[in-house]
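Practice problem: Hydrolase 2, exosortase A system-associated
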Amino acid sequence: MGTPAGTPIHFTGTRGPLFGVLHQPCSAHFKGLVLLLPPWGEELNHTRRLVRQAATRMADMGWMVLRHDPWGCGDSGGELHEATWRDWQNDALQAWEWLTRQAPTAHAGGLSHWVWGVRAGALMSASLLDAFQGRTSALASPQHVLWWQPVLHGKHMVQQWLRQQQAARWTRSDATTTTQATTAPTLWLGGQALSADLLDHMQRCPMPNPPQGARHLVWLDTAAPDTIASTPHPTPAQALTLQAWQAAGCSAHWQNVEGPNYWLTLGLESASHLLDQTLACMDAAHGSP
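Answer key — structure tokens:
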């Protein structure tokens, strides 16, 4: 049994060493595996506390959860300007295969395996599941997808970063930072340059189509208490994505739950309704065919 904060681990990725945190299942009833695909940029730091809380609660309910820093981020090796989209996808595959090797061998059937995409991490979730379909490995593949406040298109994320960069240019007096932001060929995030490859993929990356083999999509957004009643249904763009997944034979559930904009705040707010609904939806999917 791991600690509530999880157990720090290191494993080998495509380009070099990667850092992660493993949450061992605390329940005697092992339910399956969960791989987090984290958000990018400052949102990665802003969500660490909340995803740690969620992973701990998932482990308490019987799931084994792996959180990892992509290549060039956090405590993993490399620099952000070196990372490519393919690097991150292959590293996620390596993370999943590492996770499957930690699973209790006594449990063969009746398990539900999840890919959990937060914000921009959701954009890679479908391509990850598709990549598994082409592999001959006997390792179990994830069948379920959990999205937290997914970015509907990568270009929206890039536009947000550009606005933040522009604001930083106006508020900072550091001439070096200003010069870098205006003349560098890549986008600067938290003092690091985003590689041209990642920027290009983000610009062209829409909300993913349903991958082969996906059985359940759980999509949870958050909103302030005074707006929940006025937003009981998904937006037209969200509805189109849900319909595409349903047409492919995948159960797709969307819900707006009470909670803060946790990806914008550095670990200062709780989101108990989001955590409760996440576990309820995962349990419901676990018990359904």
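Discussion: The two ends are 29 Å apart (CA to CA). Students who identified this feature from the tokens alone can consider the problem solved.
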